[in-house]
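Researcher: Next entry in the queue.
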Amino acid sequence: MSAELPAVPDVAKHVVRDIGVVIVAAGAGTRVGGGSGELKQFRWVAGKPMLLHSVQLFQQRDDVAMVVCVLPKQVAGDPPPWLFQSDTERLLVAPGGATRAESVRNGLEDLPGTCRYVLIHDAARPLATAATVERVVAKMRTGRGVVPALPVVDTLKTAGDDGLISATVTRAGLWRAQTPQGFPRDMIIQAHEHAVATGQDGTDDASLCEALGLEVVIVRGAERAMKVTEESDLALLDAWQGVDE
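Model: Structure for this entry, 245 residues:
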């Protein structure tokens, strides 16, 4: 009779919590109506408030040390109670700034020193996928900035104010940037410090890194990570509920 092999101990893998997340939710959201006057990032879509989707998405990850929600100043001191349907030990609230970039910087300042990497996400993209986040994190850990994006598939035209087409733009190599965007912490802080010093204000955080010649790469995004800008977008996101990519 053969001897039995000794049991292998079930040792849980140790995960280092070294990622900080900044969720930018400080905008006025004026293009999304509804008559209630409620902020866009607090509107319900696909079963819960937009902002809560994002908080819970990132807190699913064991390597996330802290999620900072940057809210409008008038509500940062008294956030909506549903926000605390999350891991409150990994949740902070910061006041927004006069611009998106300033709001991001406020969030970065509140991240613990143990966060070596940073994910920056727009609350107006509530249905970003865990698979997209994983792709961003994997590339970010190689020391580069990362942008999830989708290739442009439509024919692009340039036209004047009168609607007269002046040219057809080749779509080869063009991508639609999304969030979360990921960066080594030192990189994104350097980029924001340079932006302040030079008066630069980019439409996303990757552009601030690009201005310094820092390496930023693209990974595949997801169609369901669309940005809510109009009232009709809420219905489109409801249709995406339960659909994986």
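Model: The longest strand covers residues 64-71.
Researcher: Noted, moving on.
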